[in-house]
């Protein structure tokens, strides 16, 4: 039997969210009954979720965001990314966001006839750097992160990054990322997106592609306003590239791995990740 308290908390929060959204007039109801935001950690998933949760987006799709982990003890799925399987459907009318899982985990979800999915990838070297600073300094302590933070704060940066590489591989992040490489060729409901494109100079065009795929008919002017409101400078008070290691929004740029990798870290990364950079065209 599922624990009662987490389920009750999730039901209450969902009810409150729906109550608030009822005040928003839905101009267009998406033909999709579910949208699935799939990814791995440290791919700006909370930023993307924030955009998907914006009432201006809801207005043009009628879909609210749903985070299944809010209904679990500790609000955290303790399974590795390659162990996560789902035997129950998500609520109809919801954008499940984010789903940290491999492609097989996504395939296990019971889905309605009308649905869409998208997967956000990121240079795995930048994933490593972002995860290292987040785990060491800024991320809320959930699961075993308290122990990990203690370990990282005893280590040099080089040893901490090597530790983080091993940890991310153990929790299945790199295998999960690899599993999605050709998902769009297998399943036409899946759209592939790159973190680097979503934060880049052509961000609006890539979000337009995402929303067209998901049947979210937000006008260009509204989308522009949403992206500006949720932009790095607006939410962090800093320009992209200005680093605050204590902040969840640490730096807001791609390619930061070049400031932290050395020959030892690069060699171990290749040992663990293999041809993952080539698979995702990050070489």
From TrEMBL:
Keyword field contains Lipid metabolism: no
Entry keyword set: Transferase
GO MF annotation: an example: sulfotransferase activity
GTP-binding as UniProt keyword: no
Family under the similarity heading: Belongs to the sulfotransferase 1 family.
Name under which the protein is recorded: Uncharacterized protein
């Amino acid at each position: 039997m599922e624990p009662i308290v987490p389920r009750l908390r999730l039901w209450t929060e969902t009810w409150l969210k729906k109550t608030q959204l009822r005040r928003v007039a839905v101009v267009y109801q998406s033909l999709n009954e579910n949208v699935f935001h799939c990814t791995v950690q440290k791919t700006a998933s909370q930023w993307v979720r924030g955009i998907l949760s914006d009432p201006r987006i809801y207005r043009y799709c009628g879909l609210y965001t749903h985070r299944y982990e809010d209904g679990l003890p500790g609000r955290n799925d303790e399974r590795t990314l390659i162990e996560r399987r789902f035997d129950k459907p998500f609520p109809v009318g919801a954008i499940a966001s984010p789903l940290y899982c491999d492609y097989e985990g996504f395939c296990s979800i019971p889905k309605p006839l009308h649905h869409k999915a998208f997967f956000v990838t990121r240079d795995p070297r930048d994933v490593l750097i972002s995860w290292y600073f987040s785990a060491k300094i800024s991320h809320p302590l959930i699961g075993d992160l308290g122990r990990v933070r203690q370990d990282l704060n005893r280590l040099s940066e080089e040893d901490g990054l090597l530790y983080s590489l091993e940890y991310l591989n153990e929790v299945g992040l790199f295998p999960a990322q690899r599993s999605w490489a050709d998902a769009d060729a297998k399943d036409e409901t899946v759209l592939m997106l790159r973190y680097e494109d979503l934060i880049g100079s052509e961000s609006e065009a890539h979000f337009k592609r995402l929303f067209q795929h998901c049947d979210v008919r937000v006008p260009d002017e509204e989308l522009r306003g949403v992206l500006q409101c949720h932009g790095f400078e607006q939410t962090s008070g800093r320009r992209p590239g200005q680093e605050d290691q204590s902040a969840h929004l640490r730096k807001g740029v791609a390619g930061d791995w070049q400031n932290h990798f050395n020959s030892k870290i690069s060699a171990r990364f290749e040992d663990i990740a293999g041809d993952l950079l080539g698979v995702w065209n990050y070489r």
